[in-house]
Specification:
It is a single chain. With 222 residues, this protein is an alpha/beta fold. The chain has a single domain, classed as Rossmann fold (3-Layer(aba) Sandwich), CATH 3.40.50. The protein contains 6 helices and 9 strands; from the N terminus they run ααββαβαβαββαβββ. The strands form 2 sheets. A 7-stranded mixed sheet has the order 5-4-3-6-7-8-9. A hairpin with a 5-residue loop joins strand 8 (190-198) and strand 9. Helix 1 packs across helix 3. The chain starts with a helix and ends in a 10-residue tail after the last strand. The model has no long low-confidence stretch (mean pLDDT 92).
Amino acid sequence: MATINRNVTHLIEDIEREVRYTQNYIGKNKLDKRVMQAMATVPREKFVPEHLQYHAFDDGPVPIGYGQTISQPYIVALMSDLLDLKPEHRVLEIGTGSGYQTAILAQLCEKVFSVERIVELSLQAQERFKQLKYKNIETRIGNGYHGWQEHAPYDGIIVTAAATHIPQPLIDQLKPGGNLVIPVSASYFGQSLMQVKKDLAGGIETKDILSVAFVPLVHDDE
């Protein structure tokens, strides 16, 4: 238990340090308290392969198999913060992966809907949610490019893979007043984490936040 507590302390300290380093880009010197509490609460070590658990609290991504990764803790926290979630909100996540980002979101809002195209990862994540007793998460297996229309609109949408552009279906499924957080790639400058805000009239405003590195978002024809 003492080792886990030390690891959590280091994880929080790493996030706080990264926030200070990037404050001129993200426009703040600390993240929301609810986000930081979620980061301290969700057991990150449960979301990485057993043979890599000693890397669970590293200040970087960790492979989870099938060419996918669990994101750096700071990026998970930052993306969660950019969604600006309230307890009554409903969120769509594209790319369940290990389920770690999903579990963080589940601490912050009423319901998380998460889509994962890799069957094995989705099933593993579902089992973790069951073991950890997270009851406000609903998952499906499929390509997330087109979102999950059945439960739209969403107060927030988060994409955990880099798209070549912002998918129109996700913009359509975002509730007015909501935030879409997505890494977008362009060959000439790499990837940029973007925050897309939809105003109450349905207008869209995009903001480049930070340079990032994510696995690619796969389209239906790939």
